[in-house]
Design goal:
350 residues; alpha+beta; Cathepsin B, Chain A; four-stranded antiparallel beta sheet; four-stranded mixed beta sheet; 56% helix; RNA polymerase II C-terminal domain phosphoserine binding; Plus3 domain-containing protein; transcription regulation; Plus3-like_sf
Length: 350
């Protein structure tokens, strides 16, 4: 974009960051600034393969400074740098740009190349600058526009030899452009095929997972099915049919015109559980549920491990018998204070 004729207008109002300190705690310090306008600096410097005096006027709060284009950073803006800039503007009671303003600026920059109408002089200058810099190849579109202009000028001047030569070069450029577009089309087709294959693989995995879940549920007991359904439900509640009828009668649930049953706040949908999922309490009143047995067994194992660990710790501790304890003689308070007095007197005498 540096070689574009609308570069000065393109960068106006954009935001950049520039280094203000070489090294602080091992890191470079950057400042987030806004580009006020394009200006000229005192000395020329190399940039994009050519010597230029073009620079930018940067605004940070109420202060301004000029900078070369080469001094601007191409690194991503860090959140800390943005917060410092925002807090600085707020301390000066200046308006911080909103998200809508940033989107509007971005769209304007994005649409500027397509809206700009190139003149013959602009195309010639841009092509010559790119060729002289050797930084990058001239785009085929720009070269085709320039050749079409030169062909028209040669025909107007009745220079048919020149026009034939230019038309041959124009045909080569158009052919190269068609080949480039064909390559892009092939890449798009290849990417679409890869995406289609990935979608088929994902669909097959989903179907296999669904079949596996159904097979797993077939081997579950009624209580396990009930627990699985309730755990996998999202914004949906499952109750037995008799409980739904009771809650509807009490006004805790409401029935919508489309037949759905929801809670009073209409945030959670309620569905009736299938009959094969509801456990038969009368039939299994004397039998413990499988999940309850597994939980009790797990707790018993954990308790056994804890008891074993405590017993082993107690065995490691030394045990002092009562006879040994009786033979031990402690120090009385009187003896303790006498020892303190003797030690203090000895220290004073020394």
């Amino acid at each position: 974009n540096f070689f574009e004729p609308f570069f000065d207008k393109l960068v106006q109002g954009t935001y950049v960051k520039i280094a203000i300190d070489d090294n602080v705690d091992g890191e470079r310090v950057y400042r987030f600034c806004q580009v006020s306008h394009v200006c000229n600096v005192e000395r020329s410097y190399p940039f994009a393969g050519e010597k230029t005096k073009k620079g930018v006027m940067l605004v940070y709060g109420k202060s301004k400074r000029t900078s070369t284009l080469a001094a601007l950073s191409n690194h991503r803006l860090q959140e800390r740098e943005f917060d410092l800039w925002r807090l600085y503007l707020e301390s000066l009671k200046m308006t911080v740009p909103t998200k809508e303003m940033a989107i509007k600026q971005y769209n304007a920059i994005k649409e500027m190349p397509s809206r700009h109408k190139y003149t013959d002089e602009q195309v010639t200058v841009m092509v010559n600058r790119k060729r002289a810099s050797g930084k990058s190849q001239v785009s085929l579109g720009v070269e085709i526009v320039r050749l079409e202009r030169d062909v028209a000028a040669a025909k107007t001047a009745n220079n048919f030899d020149k026009s034939i030569e230019l038309e041959a070069r124009l045909a080569q450029m158009q052919h190269a452009n068609e080949q480039r577009l064909a390559v892009k089309t092939e890449d798009v087709v290849r990417i679409n095929e890869i995406n289609k294959r990935n979608r088929e693989i994902n669909m097959k995995r989903d179907m296999d997972a669904s079949a596996s879940n159904r097979a797993q549920m077939d081997n579950m007991s009624a209580a396990q099915k009930l627990q699985y359904v309730r755990a996998s439900a999202s914004r949906r509640m499952y109750l037995s049919k008799d409980k739904i009828d009771v809650n509807l009668a009490e006004g805790k649930l409401v029935k919508l015109p489309d037949g759905r049953i929801m809670t009073v706040n209409k945030l959670v949908e309620v569905e009736a559980l299938p009959d094969d999922i509801i456990p038969d309490n009368k039939k299994n009143s004397k039998e413990e549920d499988v999940l309850v047995k597994m939980e009790r067994k797990r707790k018993a194992q954990e308790l056994a491990v804890v008891e074993t660990r405590v017993n082993s710790e107690l065995k490691k501790r030394p045990v002092v018998s009562d006879e040994v304890k009786k033979t031990r003689r402690g120090i009385s308070m009187k003896d303790y204070f006498n020892r303190v007095k003797e030690r203090t007197a000895a220290e004073d005498g020394a």
